[in-house]
Specification:
Blueprint: H1 2-13, H2 25-32, H3 36-48, E1 52-55, E2 59-62, H4 75-90, H5 95-109
Antiparallel strand pairs: 1-2
Helix pairs in contact: 2-3
């Protein structure tokens, strides 16, 4: 589910932190034209996974992050990845090509 994945990505990157309030289903619907039931289903999934909690009358709040505890310094890795992406672009790869390549390597590396 796209909204669940986007929220998890924001949690991994530190864009969402414990205590942050998620937009209401109506706010998401207005911004994205997404069905409010789809938004509520995504929020229930995030709640089931222990990432957010609904507070009656207040909204849905982040209770746990997916960032790596005690780190926060991904600078060298980020810089290396940025350099690799610049090389891929210089070699003529489009964004979709890079996404496919990265996904293929990730799938190979993290086989279950």
């Amino acid at each position: 589910m796209q909204l669940v994945n986007q929220t998890k990505q924001a949690l991994r990157l530190g864009l969402l932190r414990p205590g942050d309030r998620l937009p209401t289903a109506k706010e998401v619907m207005t911004a994205t034209a997404m069905n409010p039931n789809t938004v509520l289903k995504a929020y229930r999934e995030l709640e089931r996974e222990g990432l957010v909690e609904g507070r009656r009358g207040l909204g849905t709040f982040v209770v746990r992050t997916l960032g790596r505890a005690g780190t926060g310094d991904d600078g060298p890795l980020r810089d290396g990845l940025a350099a690799w992406l610049a090389g891929a672009e210089a070699a003529g790869l489009e964004r979709e090509d890079v996404e496919a390549l990265v996904k293929a390597v990730l799938d190979e590396h993290y086989r279950t």
